[in-house]
Specification:
Pfam families: Aminotran_3 (PF00202). This protein is α/β, with parallel strands linked by helices. Strands 4-10-9-8-7-5-6 form a seven-stranded mixed β-sheet, with helices on both faces. The chain has a four-stranded mixed β-sheet with strand order 1-2-3-13. The protein has a four-stranded antiparallel β-sheet with strand order 11-12-15-14, covered by helices on one side. A hairpin with a 2-residue loop joins strand 11 and strand 12. Helix 7 packs parallel to helix 8 and helix 12 packs across helix 13.
Length: 435
Amino acid sequence: MTSDDLLARHRAVLPSWMLLYYADPIEVVSGEGRRVTDAQGRTYLDFFGGVLTNMIGYDIPEIREAVQRQLATGIVHTSTLYLIRQQVELAEKIARLSGIPDARVFFTNSGTEANEAALLMATNFRRSHQVLAVRNSYHGRSYATMGITGNRGWSASQLNPLQVAWLHSGERLRGLLSRLPEADRIDAAVEDLREVLATQTSGDVACLLAEPIQGVGGFVHGPDGLFAAWKKVLDEHGILLVSDEVQTGWGRTGEHFWGYQAHGVTPDLLTFAKGIGNGFALAGVVGRAEVMESVPAISFSTFGGNPVSTAAGNAVLDYLLDHDLQANAARTGAILVDGLRAAVGGLDCVAEVRGKGLMLGVEFVRPGTAEPDAALAAGVFEACRAGGLLVGKGGLHGNVLRMGPPLTLTEDEAREGLAILVEAIRSCAAEAVAP
């Protein structure tokens, strides 16, 4: 079977709104370490990791063996009506690492479900369906999570079970806060929050759900300390803070284990997903016991926290901690961000090289303006693939190159990927200005 055959079959049976990367889509058939091979035998260095999900990389013996041991028992599923040792052990580790006192953990299959569960708990705890969300955010594809997604390209329905009020994101390039000096943006964001509460809500808001770094939004974020400033106001009203750590968790930012820790504040709930399963479906919510216990009826997740996925999760988390991958993310991420800023940061078409650890973005604009250049971003995206590097795209305007390599990335691989990135950006930038 050729890739063309598979593409035709894909288009015949799957909906057109399922995005496929690249003008000539690829089928990934094998992987090892930080590299994957397609059906044509071409090998790529992977800087996107299945959208930041293959956090430890591919074909990792410790994870494979943990899953095989569980499969050998013959038990793939029991449901949470029975005790699941792997689930309890993983919950104990996550509760301890969360930084939240007296924490409880509920497992789901995906980040969408995790955010849905957090909303269920917050709205029950506060007896309110009013929610604060942030512009340019992304939280999932269910009705409620689309309703608090502040990015029109990913919000596929206007139907919403929640009443949502929107805060400015603190993005550095665009929006009202971008016009202010950096030192004034937190005060302006607090003023914005107070005005939103006074004018767009009836006061008894359930929660603010926010990403420390906006993932789909293009890896943009407000100033460190923003969450703490917001929480001072939220606490005046009893409003909960929920940190969406689906992309920022597990040490990816390098400087902290959770994204919220850059802000000097502890959330009431945090949601996690993606990397903890390293490809196995695993996600969840961890939070204060009194909030987690506020669900007034029986609720469970059929497949969330099943024996196989939590066996993988335990192995992933143990590997992450044993090998200090947070420090590795800081080290290899610095190679990438410093190298990109030095090599292409001065180009007129590069508005910003940004990010923390191994969560990096390059935003492209038309030279001399702040006008997004999605076409140039698409060209660089394809050029990276041609050079043997897989990256992602994103941003509100589709003009941001996104990179979230496995946290096991080596320094040599970081330099290899950097060279491909620099060549792709320079060549596409030169073509864009050629007469």
